[in-house]
Amino acid sequence: MAIVERVFSGVQPTGNLHLGNYLGAIVNFVKLQETHNCIYCVVDMHAITQGADVWGGPAELARNTREVAAAFIAAGVDPKKHIVFNQSQVSGHAELTWIFNCVARVGWLSRMTQFKEKAGKDRENASVGLYDYPVLMAADILLYRATHVPVGEDQKQHLELARDIAQKFNNDFGDSIRGQGFNEGLFFPQPEPLITGPATRVMSLRDGTKKMSKSDSSDNSRINLTDDADTIAQKIRKAKTDPEPLPSEEKGLETRPEADNLVGIYAALSGRSKQQVLSEFGGGQFSSFKNALVELCVEKLSPIASEMKRLVADPGHVDAILVDGAERANAIAAETMKSTKDIVGFIRSR
Ligand code: AQP
């Protein structure tokens, strides 16, 4: 079984899907369909790693799962040509996580900054699942032996961990891997993060030093993919800025996080570089730039919001897409699990 190029990525169904998720990840999901076989997953098992106060309980989880699938499709992911499914329908994610739990080292996980941020001061009370989140993420990717993973910048460290796990598994089981007929002891690929574009880390509209995030208590900190035109306009007009006019050169954004963020959003949505945006708006006041940004955001996001609305109004249709995707994902996953079990030495039915 040779390694073929394959894209995998996931988004958690934890509600409030926002512009950062869209520009950091989903836009690239759409582009990569032209060149790769792609698997896009609603990672519902990751969503329950924090308390039900965060993920909202069973009804909310199901609703959010359908909403993320709807966002993928509304943004342009084709679930027939590629695969869209929810993680918990493919048991291989949990099975491979256990094997990887025995490969990953506690020291590696203890360095993960996302765990430290999310667990906060009350670390003793965090779930084991939250601590183990990056191992499940490595299993998500490597279950499909995926080679490329489009993500936002915040996921870079987790991708490095997935690479370390793949390498250690290949080393630890090298002889067995060769014995099973895989070349040079290489079974799992080293997945490459694809962190591209001018908005790989979209910041909060209220504080340019904080990531735009689903869990921010202020709804004004983010543009949700389901926001209507008026709400988008209101949030952008209220977005924090500074008193200076926009600079004409990119260097002038270096110490101005809020300005840098808004210019980055404009650049990403218009398919231009930040410098091109500054060549047009540099020297002008924020108010006129914000008007142009409102217009652009509404033009790009409104069709997505209305298509999402249409899709989630028909949960049976979305569920059928997820079931079909899960069957096709499972066919790939089952092959990886068979070989992995043989490599590890687990007896299985033939
Ligand atoms: N602000 C962001 N800018 C660019 N990319 C982002 N992503 C998330 N926030 C930004 C990318 O979106 C994808 C899906 O993210 P996720 O749902 O798996 O989890 P997350 O990174 O924890 O997202 P949030 O919105 O920030 O949630 P909370 O508030 O729970 O922390 C990933 O590719 C991520 O990089």
Key descriptive features of the protein:
350 residues, mainly alpha, Rossmann fold, Tyrosyl-Transfer RNA Synthetase, three-stranded parallel beta sheet, 6% strand, binds adenosine-5'-tetraphosphate
What does the model show?
- The chain has 350 residues and is mainly alpha-helical.
- It has two domains: 7-200 and 314-344, HUPs (Rossmann fold, 3-Layer(aba) Sandwich), CATH 3.40.50.620; 219-310, Tyrosyl-Transfer RNA Synthetase, CATH 1.10.240.10.
- Helix content is 54%, strand content 6%.
- The protein contains 15 helices and five strands.
- Strands 1-2-3 form a three-stranded parallel β-sheet. The chain has a two-stranded parallel sheet with strand order 4-5.
- Helix 5 packs across helix 8.
- The protein binds adenosine-5'-tetraphosphate.
- Adenosine-5'-tetraphosphate (AQP) binds at residues 11-12, 14, 20-21, 24-25, 151-152, 154-155, 200-202, 211-215.
Q: Structural class of the secondary structure composition?
A: mainly alpha
Instruction: Return the CATH architecture of the largest domain.
Output: 3-Layer(aba) Sandwich
Main pleated sheet: 3 strands, parallel
Number of domains: 2
Strand percentage lies at 5-15%
Bound molecules: adenosine-5'-tetraphosphate
Summed over residues and divided by their number, the pLDDT gives a mean of 95
Order of helices and strands: EHEHHHEHHHHEHHEHHHHH
Rg for CA atoms = 21 Å
Head-to-tail CA distance between termini: 18 Å
SS element count, helices: 15
Name of the CATH class of the largest domain: Alpha Beta
Output the CATH homologous superfamily of the largest domain: HUPs
CATH topological fold name of the largest domain:
Rossmann fold
Helical amount: 40-55%
Give the spatial strand order of the biggest sheet.
Answer: 1-2-3
Shape: globular
Query: How many extended strands?
Result: 5
| Poorly predicted parts | none
